[in-house]
Write a structure and sequence with these properties.
Helices cover about 30% and strands about 20% of the residues. It contains 13 helices and 18 strands. The strands form 4 sheets. Strands 17-16-15-14-13-12-3-18 form an 8-stranded parallel β-sheet. The longest helix is centred in the middle third of the chain and has 24 residues, at about 310-335.
């Protein structure tokens, strides 16, 4: 089974540029006080892992929320994603089954299913027939409902549409624990993991990187099948924040028009708990030339004559468009515009990006926050260092990481605090934590990957997180949005604070100690 085409987008789609490639020329509630340790106080936020079919995190009680898109499988042929689909409904369900074929989806893909219920029911509307394979076993059928057993094994929990009615096709598939009569929207273990956080950054839930959304009509909608390609509806993000009383951090798509921004802001104003502030950021890492949003900003900046230098034009357009978007949000919120927290993000290792953005005309009136991603360990996965680093012991690796956290990384934070202060802004971390991953070919070095995974699982990694956060707050940094909530390790990185549900992790333990005001050493 070749999943490379889709699994290659794991991690954050593309790696953050490292310093060697820098520029050219938890229930979250306001009832929770800030974490305090050794005289240092600060707030933590969390980047939620994207809603992909391969995710190990299941936020919704409907376990089919993460399902993969449908694909046609021709009987007797090899597995493929590429056979053309039949006519589909607006919600992403097939209206016909091609001859000698089935329509197939990974309803639950992850092998990390030990924490999920065994006794499940698959509900659906319409007429037709579903069959199950892999990690799913049919137990009984009723109209619009199949009782299916989660086998908790490596094989995906796969559903196949073998029959469907063209005028009343199978649709609205959802999976719930069989014993629950009225399931809640969000799973209790997911909500409990949010305890103590001050904000939730929805960058990956919104599919921000390389987004194609332009108009309000393009947005993800409730009922659409296959979240791996669609993102999470705004209504669900608002519901999560209202239930937990955690502030949202939204990332506006880089191509979106003013109508999208206005409609988005209007819905947030109407439905979000009025006690919650709203963090607003234009796209994600527009400074990072790895992403499509950077290409767009560069082209627009040059077209508008913002600079004759490509990269400066890119950053100035980012500042310009961020300001336009924030003006719309503030206009919509009107008398409550103080609830809008204006975010301008820059590259952590390059203060010039920060000053270029914050000094651009109009920014000062809307820039509440300069945000950076103060990762540590990123240079160790470069192609130039990979062969050497892969032979290191864990002791040597942690010795190097400790030096970086206490010297280079601390210096970066202090320098960016000074820039933020100069422009009367607060310094936030939009992402952060360890950045141990091979890149630019080094991701295929198995020894390096094994070393980095082992380091992430080592108790010393938790110590580094506590020290890093202490340095952040002691240097003047404020809200820190950790990256990210939960994901399994691979050659694409070990980004999750947790790898799966039901097992702890040194990084997660460290964060919990900070949130519970334990000592940071």
């Amino acid at each position: 089974m070749d999943l490379g085409k889709e699994s290659s987008v794991k991690r954050r789609a593309l790696l953050q540029l490292l310093s060697s490639a820098a520029i050219s020329p938890l229930l979250i509630s306001r009832n929770f006080g800030p974490a305090r340790a050794q005289g240092v106080s600060g707030r933590l936020a969390l980047n939620l892992t994207g809603m992909s079919y391969w995710a190990t995190e299941y936020a919704f009680s409907n376990l089919a929320y993460n399902a993969s898109r449908w694909r046609v499988q021709i009987e007797g042929d090899a597995f493929t994603w590429d056979t053309p689909l039949p006519p589909m409904t607006e919600d992403g369900y097939p209206t016909a089954v091609p001859p000698n074929s089935v329509l197939e989806s990974f309803l639950i893909f992850t092998s990390e299913r030990k924490a999920l219920p065994v006794q499940l029911s698959v509900y659906y509307d319409g007429k037709g027939k579903l069959e199950y394979k892999g990690g799913a076993q049919l137990e009984s059928r009723a109209r619009g409902r199949d009782d299916v057993r989660n086998l908790r094994k490596e094989d995906p929990f796969t559903a196949r549409i073998t029959e469907t009615d063209r005028t009343d096709p199978i649709r609205n598939i959802r999976i719930h624990e069989r014993s629950v009569t009225i399931p809640p929207k969000f799973r209790k273990p997911f909500l409990e993991r949010m305890n103590g956080m001050s904000a939730l950054r929805f960058m990956d839930w919104m599919g921000t990187n390389n987004s194609g959304i332009i108009h309000w009509a393009d947005r993800p909608r409730r009922g659409q099948f296959g979240r791996s390609e669609l993102g999470v509806p705004l209504e669900d993000m608002i519901d999560l924040c209202n239930e937990t009383r955690i502030e949202p951090w939204f990332n506006m798509p880089h191509l979106c028009d003013d109508g999208f921004v206005r409609a988005f802001a209007e819905q947030v104003k109407k439905d979000l708990d009025p006690r919650l502030d709203v963090h607003v950021e234009y796209s994600n890492e527009v400074w990072n030339t790895s992403f499509g949003q950077a290409d767009h900003a560069r082209a627009q900046g040059l077209a508008l004559g913002l600079s004759s230098n490509d990269y400066e034009a890119q950053l100035r357009y980012y500042a310009h468009r961020s300001t336009e978007i924030l003006k719309i949000w503030e206009d919509i919120f009107s008398a409550d515009s103080q609830r809008i927290i204006g975010i301008y993000a820059a590259q952590s290792v390059n203060e010039w990006t920060s000053t270029t953005i914050l000094s651009w005309k109009g920014v000062a009136q809307h820039a509440d926050v300069l945000a950076i991603a103060p990762y540590f360990g990123g240079s160790l996965g470069s192609p130039e260092r990979a062969d050497d680093v892969s032979k290191w012991s864990l002791d040597r690796l942690f010795s190097e990481l400790e030096k970086e956290v206490e010297i280079e990384n601390k210096k970066i934070i202090r320098n960016q605090v000074a820039v933020a202060n100069q422009y009367r802004a607060k310094l936030y971390a939009y992402e952060g934590g360890q950045h141990l991953v091979g890149h630019s070919g080094a991701e295929n070095n198995d020894m390096l990957t094994d070393l980095f995974i082992a380091a992430n699982r080592d108790p010393r990694m938790g110590d580094l997180y506590r020290r890093h956060l202490r340095n952040w707050w002691a240097s003047g940094g404020e809200l820190y949005a950790l990256f990210s909530s939960m994901s399994g390790p691979s050659k694409w990185g070990s980004w999750g604070l947790l790898e799966n549900e039901g097992e702890s992790h040194p990084k997660w333990q460290a964060v919990q100690q900070v949130l519970n005001a334990k000592n940071i050493r």
